[in-house]
Amino acid sequence: MKTPIWLAMVCLTASLPTQAEIFKPIELKDQELATLRGRYVMPGRIISFGVVMTSTWENAKGEVIGARSSMQIQQSTIKPQFYVSMIDEKPTSSTSTRSQDTSTNTSPGTGTVTGGNGLNSTQGVTQVVRAAGDNNTAYNNVDINVAKANQTPATQPPGQALDPGSTLTGSNGAGSLSISSTGTGVQLNIVANNNQGSAMQRLGQGGLMQNTTLLGSTNQVRNLTSFNVVLRDSAQAAGSYNGNLDQLKGLRTSGF
């Protein structure tokens, strides 16, 4: 009478290694993970999507040059469009005093940075700071902000439109700036005066590049990008989910 019980226990014990193998975690390759990323949200949930890119360069005298490029897509948006606001600031009393404390701050940059050709072929988010000077500050940052609301957020004054294929430029005592929109995305370039260095920020082709090269001293550089998504907080009726995201499809022609 006990033989069937012992036989069942032996069979169960023998099957345990097999069960363990079935539930053993399997490591996935990057190519496989790329196909598993979440890609969709119900259209009725997204009421606003925006991108803000800001690049600034402040030299030892306190002069600042830069630009803010922004795009916001809402339900009423007909065509995705980047807008640019130039940044041109004169030195304040505090920054003027700071530059006088160190006489070498205003000297031409003598640093040398070599290499870096591979940076043009990177994918995803790339953040680079290369420094060959003293007392510099460089900051690269990417933010993804997701908020909930029941109505479309208020928009800020857009600035000057950046049409595809166009380039906007500016300059002051700190350096020269260019913002261009091509089939590969949007790019901001700053070349500092007095051989102090350069900064670049590029968004497009599924990637983001933030690159700063410092050849002089006592410079402050910022490359900032934020992605802002607003989701509808209240639930909607089933019939309201027939909306679509045609506005976002327009980004494909711009290289995003």
What does this structure look like?
This protein is mostly beta strands. The chain has one domain. Helix content is 15%, strand content 41%. The protein has 4 helices and 12 strands; from the N terminus they run ααβββαβββββββββα. The protein has helices spanning 3-22, 30-34, 93-101, 246-249, and strands spanning 46-58, 64-74, 82-89, 125-131, 137-149, 160-162, 167-172, 175-182, 185-192, 197-204, 207-214, 220-232. A 6-stranded mixed sheet has the order 5-12-1-2-3-6, with no helix packed on it. Strands 4-11-10-9-8-7 form a 6-stranded mixed sheet, with no helix packed on it. The protein is globular and about 55 Å long. The relative contact order is 0.23.
List the helices and strands and how they pair.
Elements: H1 3-22, H2 30-34, E1 46-58, E2 64-74, E3 82-89, H3 93-101, E4 125-131, E5 137-149, E6 160-162, E7 167-172, E8 175-182, E9 185-192, E10 197-204, E11 207-214, E12 220-232, H4 246-249
Parallel strand pairs: 4-11, 5-12
Antiparallel strand pairs: 1-2, 1-12, 2-3, 3-6, 7-8, 8-9, 9-10, 10-11
